[in-house]
Write a structure and sequence with these properties.
five-stranded antiparallel β-sheet, single chain, alpha/beta, six-stranded mixed β-sheet, 688 residues, elongated
Length: 688
């Protein structure tokens, strides 16, 4: 406890030199301030007039390690304080020479009674004393451990007070925070919404909260006092993994573990819980505790089971409906293919009617009109020529309509059809097309060939209508290792917004219709375009391997060359056409020329081969499209057997459509039925 300081140092021990030495000896900052302070203006007077014992006591105070201050006299004048005390003042003015109560005016009402008590000779000590001090501009709540000790002079009178003070604010706040933390922890533990439990290493319950009791259906008293441990609450099938994880925690292998397991409740029912378990080691005690957080997830598990069952049902339903959708898509794809084929067959049927009937009648009428024109007088010849001109226009219109419906070249494959389309577009619309294709990759499916042809034709017509340019690029290639066929139409015209054109445009072969049909075929359309930057549209379809087509075996018949003697001026001619009216028209035409003799006629290619073997004509007028055997195959056989017989191809189709094939088969010339009769006669008379 604090005691009274008595200034009774023997005079023999205190000399003038000793006092001077004691004041000057200390080199602290406060010693310097004390020496330099003008004490003459204070109640304690000049420093050299202080009692020798007071000076010695001041010197001792300055070397004290604890914060210490000394005030003297009735006015409580501060005579000295050490460096350890200075931080307690904060930003307060210098305290030397001022009243202690003035220095701590905000605490004067509290400390003045204590000082007066001390001046009565009773030292006092206070622990965790609370003050509201203004040391840094704002009031702060602070705490001190401090004491007041009375100081006597040589006469035994109490003249001053020695104050030692240690600020314990941080310690006090820490204690309060710890106390509050303990309270909060207790409340958090007791009223937490999840179960909280603390056990010893043997599994005996030390602490449980209300939530844990609700989960287990046991009361706190039953858990803590009945001898139960956590092992008895865990389902036997889940106990093993819990004990293994506990072993690992105690051994320091893992800091904590998390498990979902089942609890056996007091009411006999099972509860699913999610547990988080860790080990708490006491730093000052040897024993450790197991801390667990336990969450009841029974309803969650039930919901998961229900959701899992619903998911299985949904997956099964989705799978079934997906299969139904696939089956329907496959059927729809088949129907689309059948529809495309049906459409092409109808186009082919109409084209055949035009070609096999109307055009042949017109050809015959043209032949007869030409003959008629040559045998009429000038007056009637003009009328006959007008009729002939109308017949020629009708033939041209009929041929154009036939080509629009179903160009015969389509039967030769997609590449041949695209080549024909390239020429047709240039002749009829002035569109120049750069074509790149390969017959070896032609699709073998009839519906795919027909669809791609019609779609490509539509895209090229769109270039003519909307691009503003007179040229385009058409390319047919294979993608993805020969698994996909790609037909691309591109131009450098005005371009368009792809999102705006892939809308339902109604019937026909608009982009919407093309896209829909492609998807049903397992294909797609790719569009690269923007306004002002041209367009590139690609039609992509799966490509089946094309079966190698075996060439028809031509049976060669070895025949002797027979020369039938006739008038040397006569050119012996065989007419081959499957239309009687055409054969009659040609026969009538030839009969008017004395240098030409018609030695026979045939209605198809097979009959032509047989008649040629019998008659050995000089010239054969060979139609191309005929039943049983077409003119190309018949030409190939006849030329291989009788190469000296000149064969002239004769057809309603353009020269460029069929001429190359006929020439390759062995024909020496090719004429169209609606062409000039003079051209035909010239070809017959040609000697090469």
């Amino acid at each position: 406890m604090p005691h009274s300081w008595l200034l009774t140092t023997p005079r023999a021990l205190i000399s003038k030199s000793m006092v001077m030495k004691s004041i000057i000896f200390d080199k602290s900052e406060m010693a310097k301030k004390i020496r330099e302070f003008d004490w003459s203006q204070t109640p304690v007077g000049s420093l050299e007039n202080w009692p020798q014992s007071l000076q010695y006591l001041v010197n001792s105070l300055l070397t004290n390690l604890l914060p210490t201050i000394l005030f003297w006299g009735d006015n409580f004048t501060v005579c000295a304080y050490n460096d350890a005390y200075r931080p307690l003042l904060g930003r307060k003015p210098e305290a030397l020479g001022r009243s202690f109560l003035e220095v701590w005016r905000e605490a004067a009402e509290i400390i003045k009674p204590k000082i007066e008590q001390t001046l009565q000779g009773e030292a006092c000590y206070f622990k965790n004393a609370s003050f509201e001090l203004v040391r840094f501009g704002e009031p702060d709540q602070v705490y001190f451990d401090y004491c007041f000790s009375p100081i006597q002079d040589e006469k035994g009178s109490i003249k001053g007070v020695l104050n030692m003070a240690v600020e314990v604010t941080e310690r006090k706040l820490a204690e309060e925070a710890l106390r509050e933390s303990k309270t909060q922890f207790h409340d958090a533990f007791a009223y937490a919404p999840v179960g909280m439990v603390i056990t010893d290493l043997e599994g005996r319950f030390l602490h449980v909260n209300e939530a844990y009791c609700r989960i287990t259906r046991y009361s706190e008293q039953e858990l803590l006092q009945s001898g139960l441990n956590f092992e008895q609450l865990i389902h036997p099938k889940d106990l093993g993994k819990n004990l293994e994880e506990l072993r690992r925690i105690i051994a320091g292998e893992i800091p904590a573990f998390f498990l979902e397991n089942r609890y056996l409740r007091k009411d006999g029912k099972t509860a699913w819980v999610r547990a988080s378990v860790s080990l708490h080691r006491h730093p000052k005690r040897k024993n450790s505790e197991i801390v667990g957080l336990v969450e009841d997830i029974t309803e969650l598990k039930r919901a998961e089971d229900t959701l899992q069952n619903l998911t299985k049902t949904l997956e099964q339903t989705v799978a079934e409906r997906t299969q139904v959708a696939k089956d329907r898509a496959k059927k729809l794809q088949t129907l689309v293919g059948e529809l495309t084929i049906a459409e092409q067959k109808e186009r082919q049927r109409l084209a055949k009617i035009l070609h096999d009937h109307l055009q042949q009648l017109l050809v015959s009428a043209r032949f007869n009109s030409e003959i008629l024109c040559r045998n009429l007088d000038e007056k009637h010849e003009k009328i006959a020529k007008n009729v002939l001109n109308l017949i020629n226009q009708s033939l041209q219109t009929s041929r154009s309509l036939t080509a629009d419906l179903y160009p015969p070249v389509l039967q030769q494959g997609l590449s041949a059809a695209l080549q024909w389309t390239t020429r047709w577009m240039n002749e009829n619309h002035g569109l120049t097309i750069d074509l790149q294709t390969d017959p070896d990759i032609d699709p073998k499916q009839e519906d795919v060939t027909a669809f791609l042809y019609q779609s490509t034709r539509e895209l090229l017509l769109n270039v003519i209508k909307h691009s503003g340019v007179k040229s385009a690029h058409l390319e047919m290639t294979c993608d993805d290792g020969q698994k996909q066929l790609r037909v691309t139409v591109s131009d450098k015209g005005s371009g368009f917004d792809p999102s705006a054109v892939l809308k339902n445009e109604g019937s026909g072969f608009g982009l919407f219709s093309i896209n829909e049909r492609l998807q049903l075929m397992g294909g797609s359309i790719q569009i690269e375009s923007s306004p002002g930057n041209g367009a590139s549209l690609s039609l992509i379809v799966p490509l089946e391997k094309k079966e190698e087509k075996k060439d028809d075996v031509i049976r060669e018949i070895k025949t002797e060359k027979k020369i039938i003697k006739t008038d040397e001026d006569k050119i012996r001619t065989l007419v081959v056409d499957d239309h009687t009216v055409v054969r009659q028209g040609i026969s009538t035409l030839l009969s008017l020329h004395s240098d030409i003799e018609m030695v026979g006629e045939a209605g198809d290619g097979q009959e032509a081969v047989e008649k040629t073997r019998q008659l050995h004509p000089d010239v054969i007028l060979m139609d191309i499209s005929m039943p049983r055997m077409d003119g190309i195959q018949a030409t190939r056989i006849i030329h291989s057997e009788l190469p000296y017989v000149r064969i002239i191809g004769l057809s309603m189709h353009d020269k460029q459509d069929q001429a190359d094939q006929m020439i390759q088969a062995g024909a020496s010339a090719y004429c169209t039925k609606d062409g000039s009769t003079d051209e035909l006669l010239s070809a017959i008379r040609r000697l090469d």
